[in-house]
């Protein structure tokens, strides 16, 4: 990965050097925990893709939720990329943080696109009005998860080097 993609204000924001809290997580341990949660999020978003794609099965007056499906696919791809970044963080790879940050940004963009698509779909199909009321809660949930994971990733620190034997 080029240096400009690893060392920029998105991957290394101003608060990363001195986070507001004094909690410092080692990037290897955090990578393991977030990799597990990222895998779960990718599987759940895959279930969302199949569920959203099947909304109009058998209904003649239902318009297909194209933007919503596109948003959930982008959300799923974002979680897969973020999980790959978490795995790289676990292996202490220098590009792990950047992959995780860009994957989380992609997941947040997919979440936003999915929410917009859901609003469009529910507006065009009054049959699904009850479904639209839960969309804001799902949107906020995924956005908060992305923000918390982003904060944890950018404030994580590499594990300290173990002293050599005989020193």
Q: Any overview of this molecule?
A:
67% of the residues lie in helices and 0% in strands. The protein is elongated, with a radius of gyration of 19 Å. Helix 2 runs antiparallel to helix 3 (66-90), helix 3 (66-90) packs antiparallel against helix 4 (96-124) and helix 4 (96-124) packs antiparallel against helix 5 (129-155). The protein is mainly alpha-helical. The protein has helices at residues 3-6, 27-53, 66-90, 96-124, 129-155.
What does this entry show, briefly?
The protein is mostly helical and 167 residues long. It has helices at residues 3-6, 27-53, 66-90, 96-124, 129-155.
Key attributes of the depicted protein:
single chain, 167 residues, mainly alpha, 5 helices
The 3D shape can be described as elongated
Proportion of beta-strand residues: under 5%
Structural class category: mainly alpha
Distance between the termini: 35 Å
Q: Mean of residue pLDDT? A: 82
Provide a count of the helices: 5
Q: Could you estimate the helical fraction of the residues in percent?
A: 55-70%
Query: Which stretches are low in confidence, meaning pLDDT under 50 for 5 or more residues running?
Result: none
Radius of gyration (Å):
19 Å
Main β-sheet description: none
The ordered string of helix (H) and strand (E) elements is: HHHHH
DSSP summary, beta strand count: 0
């Amino acid at each position: 990965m080029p240096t400009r993609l690893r060392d920029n204000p998105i991957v290394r924001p101003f608060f990363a050097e001195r986070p507001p809290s004094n909690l410092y997580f080692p990037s290897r341990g955090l990578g393991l925990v977030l990799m597990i949660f990222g895998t779960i999020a990718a599987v759940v978003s895959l279930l969302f893709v199949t569920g959203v794609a099947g909304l109009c099965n058998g209904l003649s007056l239902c318009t297909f939720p194209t933007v919503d499906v596109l948003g959930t696919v982008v959300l799923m791809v974002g979680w897969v990329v973020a999980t790959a970044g978490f795995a790289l963080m676990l292996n202490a790879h220098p590009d792990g943080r950047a992959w995780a940050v860009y994957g989380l940004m992609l997941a947040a963009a997919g979440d936003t696109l999915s929410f917009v698509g859901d609003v469009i779909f529910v507006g065009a199909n009054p049959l699904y009005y009850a479904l639209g009321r839960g969309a804001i809660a799902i949107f906020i949930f995924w956005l908060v998860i992305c923000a918390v994971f982003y904060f944890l990733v950018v404030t994580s620190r590499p594990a300290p080097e173990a002293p050599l034997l005989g020193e």
